[in-house]
Amino acid sequence: MSAFWLLMIILALAAVGFILGRSRAISSVQGDRRQLHSLPNYYGFNVAMLAFVPAVLVLGAWVIIQPMMISSQVSTHIPAALYEDAGQLNLIMSDVKRVAEGLDVAIAQGVMSADEVSQLDTETTDVRAMLGNVGVALGSDVDPSVLKAAQEMRAKTTSGNLFMTIVVLIVASAGFVAAMLKTQGEFRARNAVESGVKALLIAAASIAILTTIGIVLSLIFNTITFFGMFPASDFLFGLTWSPEGRGGSEHLGILPLLWGTIYISIVALLVAVPIGLFAAVYLSEYASRATRAFAKPLLEVLAGIPTIVYGLFALTVVGPLLVNFFGADGLGWMQGARSVMTAGLVMGIMLIPFVSSLSDDIINAVPQAMRDGSYGLGATQSETVKQVVLPAALPGIVGAILLAASRAIGETMIVVMGAGAAARLDLNPFEAMTTVTAKIVSQLTGDSDFASPEALVAFALGMTLFLLTLGLNVLALYIVRKYREQYE
Amino acid sequence: MSDASLQSGPDMGTPSAKSSILQLDQRTKKRNAAEARFRAYGIAAIAVGLVFLVVLISSIIFKGVGAFQQSFITLEVELLESKLDKSGERDIEKIKKVTTFGYNPLIENALKAAMEEAGVENPFTKGKDLRKMLSSGAAADLRRFVIANPDRIGDTVQFRLLASSRVDGYLKGRVTRESLARDKNLTPVHLDVVDQLKDAGVVAKSFNLGFITGADASESRPEQAGIGVSMLGSFYMMLVVLACALPIGVAASIYLEEFAPQNWITDLIEVNISNLAAVPSIVFGILGLAVFIQFAHLPQSAPLVGGLVLTLMTLPTIIISTRASLKSVPPSIREAALGIGASKMQTVFHHVLPLAMPGILTGTIIGLAQALGETAPLLLIGMVGYIASNYPGGIIEGFMSPNSAMPAQIYEWAKRADPAYYERAWGGIIILLVFLMTMNIIAIILRRRFERRW
Q1: Which tens digit of pLDDT belongs to each residue from A315-328?
Q2: Which end of chain A is more exposed for a tag (fewer CB within 10 A), N or C?
């Protein structure tokens, strides 16, 4: 029975449980509701909850674990002569899975019966052609041991699914019966339901932790696999990036990518920080209420525009414009529309509201007494800003700039569309360069399979990116929080 | 104040230089100039920011509006029985056997007839050259019509066929005679014909509904590409995000705001949430690829996977705004409920949550808007490169079968070599921004309408 129908059965059981539990509670006190500890609905909810939640948890865990267990068991039966390392074993196992799925399809389409499938062997039938007929294309002819493994996998999956159905139904009905037995007038059903709900709330809150764990694990495992195939020192200190090289001549050094990332971020910050900071100072210190109500939301519109729009803006407006001035017809510094400058300028525009609204908040948090003190000594408004407000707000502003920097480093669409694809270590800002994020995209959207170093390097790049931005964020949040405390 | 200071008072009072409060001295002038300069910098910064905004918006509009207009060629096509249904039986299976090649002569004849009527001389010897003015999908349109209405075979039917993207570009000013010099798809001679046909009213631009509702087309037919299918993909993704992120986000915020004890676990969760809010979106794409596709074997490019990834990405936003609105419900509400005997859980679900609902909805809509425009994670789960050329068959297929999404579709168009696709990409951006604007306006209205001051 498929997991979906099992889920439907459990749901139905829970619904029945709600009605029965409720009526049992009422009848246990001969219809006098005042005798009940909780409102009748709580008794119903309690039965439904106990029937539903444990069974669904078991179902979920089973659905996740069973395929892993089966494939690890089956892989021990594949003769060691067929593969040399774990990567090849993985490839064989994916073949096995595909054949097993193909056999399922064949049965579903009525080409064969289940018995025929388990009798199948490679000598009497051309399995590849047979599966091709039902619409499952295989890359190569089916090896006898692969077919055997696939048959074994099918058999185990079938029996596993049967077991799952039985176990889940037992768990569901056990919960149902246990809850029904407890349903008496003096049973504290509300407390039971509420602690259940609270457990759900805690589970929801811990999804944030699970996400982080998921990110870290998926990055770490794949990065380790990558370093198994490619030396870590070459990755970390390599000066060239050319993944297309064949026959072991590939260079996957991260330094050109990091340089591109940092260079573009610096250009972006050079645009965003002065504009954002001056805008924030003006808005918080000088602007009238009306100007502020007008300009602040408009500036923040810039932050709400999706990055794909900025990417296209860089590619089709800013790039050609820069080429007009700095290209072959102008100063001759620029070859194509894609360059560090293109991406950096556009990213800077995107970051303006980011810097300005964060700094605005921080400048507003500087106590008015400090300004009044400065005015009292005869300082002009700009002297007050420069010598009192900004120094007092400096830690917070640094935090805001760090947050903007982490945004710039992690930005993807603008650099994918505006910065180019060539990895170089160069100082000319009108040259096309590439970044960590752009390379993650290009390595993972190509056709190469996930087991090759060309694809796995993306995870190592992602790890670098994650650590870099995490470090910046933690530092920035720490500084901002510390600063806030100072004036609260 | 001491005696010494009193005695030295008159001395200190004597100004060392002549000055008057009516006349500014050099230093004051300098300071005032610095003040004015500083102010000007601030105004300039804001002006620069606003200029960027205006440039951005106007280039979006200028470049994108064209996509909503398309050139059509209106032709009277005679659906010859001898070409389409030789047997004359109107057997639908036999009619279906006629491929689009079989329809080409009909189009050629119709074009010739239209040119004759308009008094345009035919400079081409081959019908194939003539047909270059039309979209290569025109024959397919004709065929679809005939298969749907087999009884019209033999009649002369008026069709509004898509002009080829070069002709369209010429009418929109994107393509010039010079740019066609080395183009194998169209020659300047065609443009002379187009000019005359335009005067005769055969070729005309009109509103292009196909762009909004249509499916993506292959790289050689930009005139046929539409954003409709990927809009549907985005819609399914937003359903997933709404169904997952809203309950989980609200539950997590309720726990953190109302129940969580002050201990290291709560601290850990809070630090985690604020960090997740700042993790680059592409990292969520890597997570989705590794967990949902490699590990859980969910189908690639499916809106379900996209929705799950975007859920994880928008959760922190929703949690942060939900917590803020829960926090703004005054404690007296809670105390009153607890005072008349409600449990903590009842207090929260019956009183605090309904009062915080407008704020939560506002935050959710803003989170959804953010998710709708996000592209980078979708690249990694395979939503780019997939040509969204078919509408999903049903609701389950809508979630599970590969599709594109609006931002992914825009990126896909921007990548293609034909400059006609840039116009499509900008047009797609206009549609995307209209959605985002609507969502944000709804959020603002909700906030204005229901916001409570306690």
Answers
A1: 889 988 888 888 77
A2: C
Listed residues B207, B238, B263: the one ending a domain: B207
- Answer yes or no: CATH 3.10.100.10 is held by domain A242-487: no
Q: How far is B438 from chain A (nearest CA, A)?
A: 13
Residue A86: band (very low, low, confident or very high) from pLDDT cuts 50, 70, 90:
low
| A-chain residues near B414 (CB < 8 A) | 311-312, 315-316, 417
Torsions phi, psi for B113 (to 5 deg): -60, -45
Do B341 and B287 share a structural domain? yes
Q: Give the one of A200, A386, A444 whose C-beta lies nearest to B380's C-beta.
A: A444
A459 with B286: Cβ contact below 8 A: yes
Residue B285 falls inside a structural domain: yes
User: Do A36 and A59 touch, CB atoms closer than 8 A?
Assistant: no
CA angle A71, A152, A70 (to 5 degrees): 20
Domain boundary among B207, B236, B256: B207
B369 close to A (CB below 8 A): yes
pLDDT class of B44 with cuts at 50, 70, 90: very high
Tell me what pLDDT residue A485 has: 66
Q: What percent of chain A has pLDDT over 90?
A: 30
3-state secondary structure of A78: coil
Cβ contact B360:B250 at 8 Å:
yes
In a domain, B9, yes or no: no
B154 and B196 in one domain?
yes
Query: Can you tell me the distance from the alpha carbon of B241 to that of B372, in angstroms, rounded to the nearest whole number?
Result: 10
Q: Any bridge partners for residue A251, and if so which?
A: A242
> What are the extents of the domains in chain A?
3-187, 242-487
Per-residue pLDDT of A256-308, as tens digits, reads: 899 999 999 999 999 999 999 999 999 999 999 999 889 988 998 898 899 99
Q: What is the mean pLDDT of chain B?
A: 84
User: Cβ contact (<8 Å) for A445 and B260?
Assistant: no
Residue B388 and residue B274 share a domain: yes
Contact check, Cβ <8 Å, A352/B52 = yes
- In A, minimum Cα distance to B410 occurs at A308
User: What one-letter code names the amino acid at B170?
Assistant: Y
Domain membership of residue B384 (yes or no) is yes
Considering the domain architecture, whether residues B160 and B262 belong to the same structural domain is answered as: no
- How close, in Å, is residue B278 to chain A by CA atoms? 7
Interface confidence, given as ipTM, is: 0.87
Torsion angle of alpha carbons A404, A410, A413, A417, nearest 10°?
A: 90
Is residue B149 included in any domain, yes or no?
Answer: yes
Does B436 share its domain with B400? Answer: yes
- Going by their DSSP bridges, the two strands B69-78 and B156-162 should be labelled as antiparallel
| CATH, residue B341 | 1.10.3720.10
Same domain for B423 and B351?
Answer: yes
Q: How far out from the chain centre does Cα B228 lie?
A: 11
Verify that B186 and B293 share a domain, yes or no: no
Question: Which of A37, A278, A402, A452 is the mutation pick for testing B, counting most B CBs within 10 A?
Answer: A278
> Is B444 near chain A, with CB under 8 Å?
no
Q: Which of A202, A207, A212 sits opposite B248 (nearest CB)?
A: A207
b/e code A432-443 from CB counts within 10 Å (16+ = b): bbbbbbbbbbbb
Task: Give residue B188's domain range.
Answer: 70-207
**Contact flag A315-B252 (C-beta cutoff 8 Å):** no
Residue B8 has pLDDT above 50, yes or no: no
Q: What is the pLDDT of residue A488?
A: 59
Q: How close does chain B come to A392, measured CA to CA in Å?
A: 18
**Rounded-to-integer distance, Cα A368 and Cα B364, Å:** 35
Residues B343 and B246 in one domain: yes
In chain B, the number of structural domains is 2
Structure tokens at A462: 């992602």
Global pTM reads 0.85
- Of residues B186 and A138, more confidence is placed in B186
Handedness of CA B122, B124, B125, B126 (dihedral sign): negative
Partner-chain contact A470 B279, CB within 8 Å = yes
Nearest-by-CA chain B residue for A415: B376
